[in-house]
């Protein structure tokens, strides 16, 4: 058996174990609240827009909508971010942008989430307005001012530059790096 071959069922156990011990160390109750989630990621004291974004991310990770992220929800989220196929990620992004949950993204929703992301990630090459207008111009095929999930996914998958931009702007792996490395807690 070569060095890269693994036994059946050998899967990502060490990785999951790593996240489990980190999760249990940071959150002994096994139920992560929004406050603990922010603390875990070192994202306290954000401006209101940043807070809105983190709350959206938290709500999407909270699959059963009980107000807590439990370990299974946490692992599902991490798995999506690390190993998710591109269309799974695009569905996730769509949910993130669709703030009112009506199944469509309008310009206001996209603008507010992108402004929030800029507040967390720092500057970007374009303003939130430019970004929003460019996305709608490229992928709102019927020009109704709203993007359906189908329009969003097929539009982004068709346009390599847009795909790169969206992936880079909304990349959650920075969040994961923080979780993996842990924050140095200042005493």
From TrEMBL:
<dbReference type="GO" id="GO:0005509">
    <property type="term" value="F:calcium ion binding"/>
</dbReference>
<dbReference type="Pfam" id="PF13499">
    <property type="entry name" value="EF-hand_7"/>
</dbReference>
<dbReference type="InterPro" id="IPR002048">
    <property type="entry name" value="EF_hand_dom"/>
</dbReference>
<dbReference type="GO" id="GO:0008048">
    <property type="term" value="F:calcium sensitive guanylate cyclase activator activity"/>
</dbReference>
<keyword id="KW-0519">Myristate</keyword>
<feature type="domain" description="EF-hand">
    <location>
        <begin position="49"/>
        <end position="84"/>
    </location>
</feature>
<keyword id="KW-0479">Metal-binding</keyword>
<dbReference type="InterPro" id="IPR011992">
    <property type="entry name" value="EF-hand-dom_pair"/>
</dbReference>
<keyword id="KW-0449">Lipoprotein</keyword>
<dbReference type="Pfam" id="PF00036">
    <property type="entry name" value="EF-hand_1"/>
</dbReference>
<keyword id="KW-0677">Repeat</keyword>
<feature type="domain" description="EF-hand">
    <location>
        <begin position="127"/>
        <end position="162"/>
    </location>
</feature>
<protein>
    <submittedName>
        <fullName>GUC1C protein</fullName>
    </submittedName>
</protein>
<feature type="domain" description="EF-hand">
    <location>
        <begin position="85"/>
        <end position="120"/>
    </location>
</feature>
<dbReference type="GO" id="GO:0001750">
    <property type="term" value="C:photoreceptor outer segment"/>
</dbReference>
<dbReference type="InterPro" id="IPR018247">
    <property type="entry name" value="EF_Hand_1_Ca_BS"/>
</dbReference>
<dbReference type="InterPro" id="IPR028846">
    <property type="entry name" value="Recoverin"/>
</dbReference>
<keyword id="KW-0106">Calcium</keyword>
């Amino acid at each position: 058996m070569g060095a890269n071959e693994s036994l059946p069922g050998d899967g990502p156990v060490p990785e999951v174990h790593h996240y489990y011990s980190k999760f249990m160390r940071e959150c002994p109750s096994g139920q992560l609240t929004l406050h603990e989630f922010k603390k875990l990621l070192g994202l306290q004291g954000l401006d209101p827009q940043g807070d809105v974004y983190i709350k959206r991310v938290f709500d999407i990770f909270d699959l059963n909508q009980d107000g807590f992220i439990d370990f299974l929800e946490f692992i599902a989220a991490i798995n999506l971010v690390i190993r998710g196929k591109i269309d799974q990620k695009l569905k996730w992004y769509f949910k993130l942008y669709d703030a009112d949950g009506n199944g469509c993204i309008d310009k206001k929703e996209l603008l507010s989430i992108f402004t929030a992301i800029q507040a967390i990630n720092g500057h970007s090459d374009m303003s939130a307005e430019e970004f929003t207008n460019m996305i709608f111009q490229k992928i709102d095929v019927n020009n109704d001012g709203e993007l359906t999930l189908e329009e969003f996914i097929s539009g982004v998958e068709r346009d390599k530059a847009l795909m790169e931009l969206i992936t880079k702007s909304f990349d959650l792996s920075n969040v994961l790096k923080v979780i993996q490395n842990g924050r140095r807690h200042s005493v």
